[in-house]
Write a structure and sequence with these properties.
Elements: E1 2-8, E2 13-19, E3 25-29, H1 36-45, E4 49-54, H2 66-73, E5 76-80, E6 90-92, E7 97-100, E8 103-109, E9 118-122, E10 125-129, E11 132-133, E12 136-137, H3 147-155, E13 166-169, E14 179-180, H4 181-187, H5 196-203, H6 214-223
Parallel strand pairs: 3-4, 4-5, 5-6, 10-13
Antiparallel strand pairs: 1-2, 2-3, 7-8, 8-9, 9-10, 11-12, 13-14
Length: 230
């Protein structure tokens, strides 16, 4: 299997390229538009055919590369069924399967950060988007976010996976690349709560500023249009 984790320094976004092997089909999770050439170069070097590209949710801190990759490669664009995106080809529901050759992802609707947030389980690992971060969780104060929904997404779904399950988030701001369910249950400060009320109070008092790109990124990620094409 080919598994590549790429990092965008400006937005601290992780992008994942996955394939069964050289010369095979590939999928990409959470691409950043400015890095499109980098993704295409990786695909070319490994002789991969990009067939599917996935966004875990509508991002507020960067413009997705989803539409640009589709333009350049004719791949299918995938998001959850509740996404506001106007450019999606395939809308997935909870507990569906996304397949390319021997690669299989199981969809998990994990709202809270946004109402359209999805995580994707692949055998021994899960791509959690902004729902579960390493030593953190995604904010819940815009884009129909809801701390109660996020609590249930975390404690009733993601954290019930085996503790050895690898956690690959959409972002990290401190250089962490991967964690496990077990480590997050033990060490993540936002998970050390005893009730949904306690978690809600915690998330409602973060007092975070809006992402710098928010007013540009959200509309662009919904309609697929950018002011400056790369």
């Amino acid at each position: 299997m080919i598994f590549k984790q790429l990092f965008d320094k400006k937005s601290s976004t992780y992008t994942y390229i996955i394939s069964s092997g050289k010369g095979r089909e590939a999928l990409i999770i959470d691409p950043v538009i400015e890095n499109t050439e980098e993704y295409l170069n990786v695909l070319k070097e490994l002789n991969l055919k990009l067939v599917k590209v996935i966004d875990t949710h509508i991002h507020a801190d960067h413009i997705s590369g989803l539409s640009e990759l589709a333009t350049r490669t004719s791949c299918s664009k995938i998001m959850g069924e509740r996404s506001a995106s106007e450019v999606i080809d395939i809308r997935v529901k909870d507990n569906e399967k996304i397949k390319i050759e021997s690669i299989e992802l199981i969809t998990m609707h994990t709202p809270g950060h946004t109402d359209c947030s999805y995580s994707f389980l692949m055998k021994d690992r899960i791509f959690t988007g902004d729902t579960l971060l390493i030593n953190g969780t995604g904010r819940t104060d815009f884009q129909n976010g809801n701390p109660i929904d996020q609590y249930h997404s975390l404690f009733d779904k993601i954290l019930k996976l085996p503790e050895k399950t690898l956690v690959y988030p959409a972002h990290d701001y401190k250089g962490n690349e991967v964690s496990t369910i077990g480590k997050e249950k033990k060490n993540n400060p936002r998970l050390q709560v005893n009730s949904v009320e306690e978690y809600t109070d915690l998330m409602n008092n973060l007092n975070l500023g809006n992402p710098e790109m928010m007013d540009i990124a959200i509309p662009a990620n919904i309609n697929g249009k950018t002011l400056n094409k790369i």
